[in-house]
Design a protein that fits this description.
With 299 residues, the protein is α/β, with parallel strands linked by helices. Helix content is 46%, strand content 14%. The longest helix is centred in the C-terminal third of the chain and has 19 residues. It starts with 12 loop residues before the first strand and ends with a helix.
Protein backbone atom coordinates (compact mmCIF):
# COMPACT_ATOMS: atom_id res chain seq x y z
CA UNK A 1 0.00 0.00 0.00
CA UNK A 2 1.19 3.50 -0.81
CA UNK A 3 1.82 5.42 2.41
CA UNK A 4 1.66 8.67 0.47
CA UNK A 5 -1.33 7.90 -1.75
CA UNK A 6 -2.47 11.51 -1.72
CA UNK A 7 0.69 12.97 -3.22
CA UNK A 8 0.47 15.60 -5.94
CA UNK A 9 3.38 16.83 -8.00
CA UNK A 10 2.12 20.41 -8.00
CA UNK A 11 4.91 22.33 -9.81
CA UNK A 12 7.36 19.44 -9.83
CA UNK A 13 10.61 21.15 -8.81
CA UNK A 14 12.51 21.41 -5.54
CA UNK A 15 14.94 24.33 -5.55
CA UNK A 16 18.09 24.28 -3.44
CA UNK A 17 18.89 27.68 -1.93
CA UNK A 18 21.93 28.46 0.24
CA UNK A 19 20.61 29.39 3.66
CA UNK A 20 23.32 32.06 3.90
CA UNK A 21 21.86 34.08 1.01
CA UNK A 22 18.76 35.99 2.14
CA UNK A 23 18.27 37.57 -1.28
CA UNK A 24 18.10 34.17 -2.99
CA UNK A 25 15.73 32.87 -0.33
CA UNK A 26 13.34 35.79 -0.87
CA UNK A 27 13.52 35.39 -4.64
CA UNK A 28 12.87 31.65 -4.42
CA UNK A 29 9.46 32.31 -2.89
CA UNK A 30 8.32 34.04 -6.07
CA UNK A 31 9.43 31.39 -8.55
CA UNK A 32 6.55 28.91 -8.38
CA UNK A 33 8.39 25.76 -7.37
CA UNK A 34 6.98 22.83 -5.39
CA UNK A 35 9.38 23.33 -2.55
CA UNK A 36 12.36 25.31 -1.35
CA UNK A 37 15.26 23.45 0.22
CA UNK A 38 17.22 25.72 2.53
CA UNK A 39 20.71 24.26 2.35
CA UNK A 40 22.79 24.06 5.50
CA UNK A 41 25.20 21.53 4.01
CA UNK A 42 27.23 21.73 0.79
CA UNK A 43 26.44 25.35 -0.02
CA UNK A 44 27.57 26.58 3.40
CA UNK A 45 31.15 26.83 4.63
CA UNK A 46 32.16 25.66 8.09
CA UNK A 47 32.50 29.28 9.22
CA UNK A 48 28.96 30.15 8.06
CA UNK A 49 27.00 27.27 9.62
CA UNK A 50 25.60 29.36 12.47
CA UNK A 51 24.57 32.22 10.20
CA UNK A 52 22.87 29.77 7.86
CA UNK A 53 20.91 28.22 10.73
CA UNK A 54 19.80 31.65 11.93
CA UNK A 55 18.63 32.67 8.45
CA UNK A 56 16.79 29.39 7.94
CA UNK A 57 15.06 29.66 11.30
CA UNK A 58 14.01 33.24 10.70
CA UNK A 59 12.57 32.45 7.25
CA UNK A 60 10.71 29.37 8.51
CA UNK A 61 9.15 31.37 11.35
CA UNK A 62 7.85 33.95 8.89
CA UNK A 63 6.31 31.50 6.39
CA UNK A 64 3.17 29.41 6.77
CA UNK A 65 3.36 25.67 6.06
CA UNK A 66 -0.08 25.18 4.52
CA UNK A 67 0.81 25.04 0.86
CA UNK A 68 3.47 25.37 -1.81
CA UNK A 69 6.23 26.04 -1.73
CA UNK A 70 6.90 23.35 0.83
CA UNK A 71 9.60 24.27 3.34
CA UNK A 72 12.49 21.83 3.52
CA UNK A 73 15.88 22.08 5.19
CA UNK A 74 18.89 20.09 4.06
CA UNK A 75 20.77 19.36 7.23
CA UNK A 76 24.41 18.35 7.40
CA UNK A 77 25.35 14.70 7.08
CA UNK A 78 24.56 12.34 9.92
CA UNK A 79 28.25 11.43 10.13
CA UNK A 80 29.21 15.05 10.89
CA UNK A 81 29.12 16.97 14.18
CA UNK A 82 26.72 19.53 12.69
CA UNK A 83 23.38 17.80 12.17
CA UNK A 84 22.19 17.92 15.78
CA UNK A 85 22.97 21.63 15.98
CA UNK A 86 20.98 22.04 12.75
CA UNK A 87 17.98 20.37 14.39
CA UNK A 88 18.33 22.39 17.58
CA UNK A 89 18.18 25.59 15.56
CA UNK A 90 15.39 24.91 13.06
CA UNK A 91 13.02 22.42 14.74
CA UNK A 92 11.25 25.11 16.80
CA UNK A 93 10.46 26.89 13.51
CA UNK A 94 8.51 23.80 12.28
CA UNK A 95 9.87 23.02 8.81
CA UNK A 96 7.82 20.64 6.69
CA UNK A 97 10.71 18.23 6.74
CA UNK A 98 14.39 17.54 6.29
CA UNK A 99 16.45 16.55 3.30
CA UNK A 100 19.06 14.16 4.71
CA UNK A 101 22.30 13.90 2.71
CA UNK A 102 24.80 11.09 2.19
CA UNK A 103 22.82 8.44 4.02
CA UNK A 104 24.72 5.16 4.19
CA UNK A 105 23.45 3.19 7.20
CA UNK A 106 20.06 2.54 8.74
CA UNK A 107 21.56 3.25 12.15
CA UNK A 108 22.16 6.85 11.10
CA UNK A 109 18.49 7.26 10.25
CA UNK A 110 17.46 5.61 13.51
CA UNK A 111 19.50 8.19 15.43
CA UNK A 112 17.73 10.97 13.54
CA UNK A 113 14.38 9.25 14.06
CA UNK A 114 14.96 9.04 17.82
CA UNK A 115 15.89 12.70 17.97
CA UNK A 116 12.80 13.80 16.04
CA UNK A 117 10.46 11.55 18.02
CA UNK A 118 11.81 12.89 21.30
CA UNK A 119 11.26 16.47 20.15
CA UNK A 120 7.70 15.73 19.01
CA UNK A 121 6.84 14.14 22.35
CA UNK A 122 8.41 16.93 24.38
CA UNK A 123 6.61 19.64 22.42
CA UNK A 124 3.27 17.88 21.89
CA UNK A 125 3.64 17.72 18.11
CA UNK A 126 2.05 15.05 15.93
CA UNK A 127 4.18 11.92 15.96
CA UNK A 128 5.86 11.31 12.60
CA UNK A 129 4.66 14.70 11.42
CA UNK A 130 8.15 15.78 10.38
CA UNK A 131 9.01 14.19 7.05
CA UNK A 132 12.26 13.18 5.37
CA UNK A 133 13.62 13.05 1.85
CA UNK A 134 16.81 11.03 1.93
CA UNK A 135 19.71 11.43 -0.48
CA UNK A 136 21.75 8.41 -1.58
CA UNK A 137 25.10 9.83 -2.64
CA UNK A 138 27.63 7.06 -2.15
CA UNK A 139 28.07 3.52 -3.44
CA UNK A 140 27.37 2.19 0.06
CA UNK A 141 24.10 4.09 0.23
CA UNK A 142 22.97 2.95 -3.21
CA UNK A 143 23.80 -0.68 -2.48
CA UNK A 144 21.65 -0.50 0.69
CA UNK A 145 18.79 1.29 -1.04
CA UNK A 146 15.96 -0.98 0.10
CA UNK A 147 17.16 -1.09 3.69
CA UNK A 148 17.57 2.68 3.91
CA UNK A 149 14.28 3.62 2.28
CA UNK A 150 12.40 1.37 4.71
CA UNK A 151 14.27 2.55 7.80
CA UNK A 152 11.69 5.14 8.91
CA UNK A 153 8.00 5.86 8.38
CA UNK A 154 8.95 9.51 8.04
CA UNK A 155 10.66 8.93 4.72
CA UNK A 156 8.45 10.47 2.08
CA UNK A 157 10.75 10.09 -0.92
CA UNK A 158 14.37 9.70 -1.92
CA UNK A 159 16.79 11.01 -4.52
CA UNK A 160 20.22 10.18 -5.82
CA UNK A 161 23.13 12.58 -5.47
CA UNK A 162 24.88 11.99 -8.78
CA UNK A 163 27.77 14.42 -8.32
CA UNK A 164 28.85 12.91 -5.00
CA UNK A 165 28.17 9.40 -6.28
CA UNK A 166 30.40 10.04 -9.28
CA UNK A 167 33.21 11.26 -7.02
CA UNK A 168 32.76 8.28 -4.70
CA UNK A 169 32.93 5.75 -7.53
CA UNK A 170 35.56 7.49 -9.67
CA UNK A 171 33.16 8.12 -12.57
CA UNK A 172 33.74 11.33 -14.48
CA UNK A 173 31.11 14.03 -13.96
CA UNK A 174 30.73 14.38 -17.71
CA UNK A 175 29.87 10.70 -18.12
CA UNK A 176 27.68 10.63 -15.01
CA UNK A 177 25.51 13.52 -16.20
CA UNK A 178 25.84 13.97 -19.94
CA UNK A 179 25.91 10.25 -20.75
CA UNK A 180 23.55 9.16 -17.96
CA UNK A 181 26.11 6.95 -16.29
CA UNK A 182 23.78 6.10 -13.40
CA UNK A 183 20.67 5.37 -15.46
CA UNK A 184 20.23 1.91 -13.93
CA UNK A 185 20.40 3.30 -10.39
CA UNK A 186 17.83 5.99 -11.21
CA UNK A 187 15.41 3.36 -12.54
CA UNK A 188 16.07 1.11 -9.56
CA UNK A 189 15.21 3.94 -7.18
CA UNK A 190 11.84 4.33 -8.91
CA UNK A 191 11.15 0.60 -8.53
CA UNK A 192 12.23 0.39 -4.89
CA UNK A 193 10.24 3.50 -3.98
CA UNK A 194 7.13 2.03 -5.55
CA UNK A 195 7.63 -1.37 -3.90
CA UNK A 196 7.93 0.28 -0.47
CA UNK A 197 4.90 2.53 -0.92
CA UNK A 198 6.83 5.79 -1.00
CA UNK A 199 6.29 8.77 -3.24
CA UNK A 200 8.08 8.52 -6.57
CA UNK A 201 11.66 9.77 -6.30
CA UNK A 202 12.80 13.29 -6.91
CA UNK A 203 15.17 13.16 -9.85
CA UNK A 204 18.80 14.24 -9.70
CA UNK A 205 20.15 17.75 -9.98
CA UNK A 206 21.97 18.67 -13.19
CA UNK A 207 25.17 20.57 -12.51
CA UNK A 208 26.07 21.89 -15.98
CA UNK A 209 24.03 25.09 -16.03
CA UNK A 210 25.18 26.12 -19.50
CA UNK A 211 24.19 22.79 -21.09
CA UNK A 212 20.54 23.53 -21.86
CA UNK A 213 20.09 20.67 -24.32
CA UNK A 214 21.63 18.16 -21.93
CA UNK A 215 19.48 19.43 -19.08
CA UNK A 216 16.28 19.10 -21.12
CA UNK A 217 17.21 15.55 -22.11
CA UNK A 218 17.95 14.72 -18.49
CA UNK A 219 14.61 16.13 -17.32
CA UNK A 220 12.80 14.02 -19.92
CA UNK A 221 14.62 10.89 -18.74
CA UNK A 222 13.56 11.41 -15.14
CA UNK A 223 9.98 12.11 -16.16
CA UNK A 224 9.80 9.08 -18.45
CA UNK A 225 11.07 6.61 -15.83
CA UNK A 226 8.49 7.79 -13.29
CA UNK A 227 10.08 10.43 -11.05
CA UNK A 228 7.67 12.93 -9.50
CA UNK A 229 9.82 15.94 -10.31
CA UNK A 230 13.36 17.22 -10.30
CA UNK A 231 15.68 18.84 -7.80
CA UNK A 232 17.26 21.97 -9.28
CA UNK A 233 20.09 24.24 -8.28
CA UNK A 234 19.26 27.40 -10.27
CA UNK A 235 16.03 29.28 -11.09
CA UNK A 236 16.87 29.13 -14.81
CA UNK A 237 16.15 25.38 -14.71
CA UNK A 238 12.59 25.71 -13.43
CA UNK A 239 10.83 26.48 -16.71
CA UNK A 240 11.97 23.28 -18.42
CA UNK A 241 11.03 21.13 -15.43
CA UNK A 242 7.59 22.72 -15.25
CA UNK A 243 7.09 22.20 -18.98
CA UNK A 244 8.16 18.55 -19.04
CA UNK A 245 6.36 17.48 -15.88
CA UNK A 246 3.21 19.44 -16.58
CA UNK A 247 0.16 17.71 -18.03
CA UNK A 248 -0.54 18.84 -21.59
CA UNK A 249 -4.01 19.56 -22.96
CA UNK A 250 -3.60 16.54 -25.24
CA UNK A 251 -2.85 14.26 -22.29
CA UNK A 252 -5.82 15.64 -20.38
CA UNK A 253 -8.20 14.96 -23.27
CA UNK A 254 -6.81 11.45 -23.75
CA UNK A 255 -7.11 10.65 -20.04
CA UNK A 256 -10.72 11.85 -19.87
CA UNK A 257 -11.59 9.84 -22.97
CA UNK A 258 -10.03 6.68 -21.53
CA UNK A 259 -12.00 7.00 -18.30
CA UNK A 260 -15.20 7.65 -20.21
CA UNK A 261 -14.66 4.56 -22.40
CA UNK A 262 -13.80 2.49 -19.32
CA UNK A 263 -16.95 3.59 -17.52
CA UNK A 264 -19.11 2.69 -20.52
CA UNK A 265 -17.40 -0.70 -20.77
CA UNK A 266 -18.09 -1.47 -17.11
CA UNK A 267 -21.73 -0.56 -17.51
CA UNK A 268 -22.05 -3.02 -20.40
CA UNK A 269 -20.11 -5.75 -18.59
CA UNK A 270 -17.03 -5.57 -20.80
CA UNK A 271 -13.41 -5.82 -19.78
CA UNK A 272 -10.70 -4.39 -22.00
CA UNK A 273 -12.00 -2.43 -24.98
CA UNK A 274 -10.33 -1.88 -28.37
CA UNK A 275 -11.48 1.43 -29.81
CA UNK A 276 -11.94 2.16 -33.49
CA UNK A 277 -8.66 4.05 -33.65
CA UNK A 278 -6.72 1.13 -32.15
CA UNK A 279 -6.51 2.21 -28.49
CA UNK A 280 -6.69 -0.75 -26.09
CA UNK A 281 -8.39 0.54 -22.94
CA UNK A 282 -7.46 -1.87 -20.15
CA UNK A 283 -6.62 -1.64 -16.46
CA UNK A 284 -3.11 -0.26 -16.98
CA UNK A 285 -4.32 2.50 -19.27
CA UNK A 286 -7.10 3.41 -16.85
CA UNK A 287 -4.56 3.75 -14.05
CA UNK A 288 -2.44 5.98 -16.30
CA UNK A 289 -5.47 8.17 -16.98
CA UNK A 290 -6.36 8.44 -13.30
CA UNK A 291 -2.77 9.33 -12.42
CA UNK A 292 -2.60 11.92 -15.18
CA UNK A 293 -5.75 13.67 -13.99
CA UNK A 294 -4.58 13.51 -10.39
CA UNK A 295 -1.32 15.21 -11.37
CA UNK A 296 -3.35 17.89 -13.08
CA UNK A 297 -5.47 18.35 -9.93
CA UNK A 298 -8.71 16.91 -11.30
CA UNK A 299 -8.84 13.92 -8.93
Amino acid sequence: MNRWKGWRMEMSALLFVPATDEHKIQKAETLGCSGIILDLEDAVSEADKERARANATRWLQQRASDGPPRRWVRINGLDTPHWESDLDAVLPASPDGFVVPKVERAGQLRALEDRLRRWERETGQNLNGIQMVILLETAAGVMRMEELLSASKRIRAAALGIADLAVDTGMSLDFAFRQNGFAAERVRLVLVSRALGLEPPWDVVYVFLDDKAGFREDVHFGHDIGCQGKMVIHPSQLAVVREVYGVSDEEMLKARRILEISAQARQSGQGAVLTEDGLLVDGALVRWAEDTLRRAGEQ
